[in-house]
Amino acid sequence: MLEIKNLVKKFDDRTIINNLSVRVEDNEILAVVGPSGAGKTTLLRCITGLEKVNSGKFFWNGEEFDPSKMDQKNSLVGVVFQDYQLFPNLTVLDNIMLAPKLVKKMDNEVIKKTALDLLSRLGLEGKETLYPYQLSGGQKQRVALVRALAMDPKVLCYDEPTSALDPELRDEVAKIIVDLKSRELQMTQIVVTHDMEFAEKIADNILKVEQLS
Ligand SMILES: Nc1ncnc2c1ncn2[C@@H]1O[C@H](COP(=O)(O)OP(=O)(O)OP(=O)(O)O)[C@@H](O)[C@H]1O
Ligand SMILES: [Mg+2]
Question: Which residues line ligand 1 (CB under 6 A)?
Fold first, then answer.
């Protein structure tokens, strides 16, 4: 269970997140919805430690942690960025294997097996030697998802996973997210979206955020 208590995030004097508390149970899908500028991406960046918070506390299974100081070997939170952020000069397989290799220092063969297994689960069998430019938008997104999953996070966050996709792929992403919850991976997921319909379709709970100023 992930718990955030009394999170405050400001940029200079502007308060973006004002005293937010939220709890995400194991296996739950929490959708965070709200208008542009409400602080959805900022919230994800705080949870993943990319952004320092002004105040507030984070707990995993009741134990406090500091996302900005996490030892990456026990990567708790993974994130699929809105623009995927794949390395253009690396193949699909190398994109996926890079972080487990560098950060977790895992055995190459083990990482490769996991990567190929995840790729085939997400319908990307045979794509491992391609470069990102040779993939469709939906395929790139799934590679980004596999890359995050390869680090074996407990919590997986997505920033606007459907914004660049046509309706058909949108349904596919919804299926993948819901599927990850029920599979043996038992993922806890936070999905940032401005698409209320999508949120209602996938989420167990919906957190609505508003623009403060
Ligand atoms: N690094 C930063 N420095 C200063 N202000 C920032 C920074 N990052 C975000 N902001 C401001 O914080 C507010 C929230 O931004 P954020 O990107 O979290 O919104 P969002 O809800 O994700 O919007 P969208 O739906 O358009 O993606 C915006 O007003 C933005 O300008
Ligand atoms: Mg955003």
Answer: 11, 16, 34, 36-42, 194
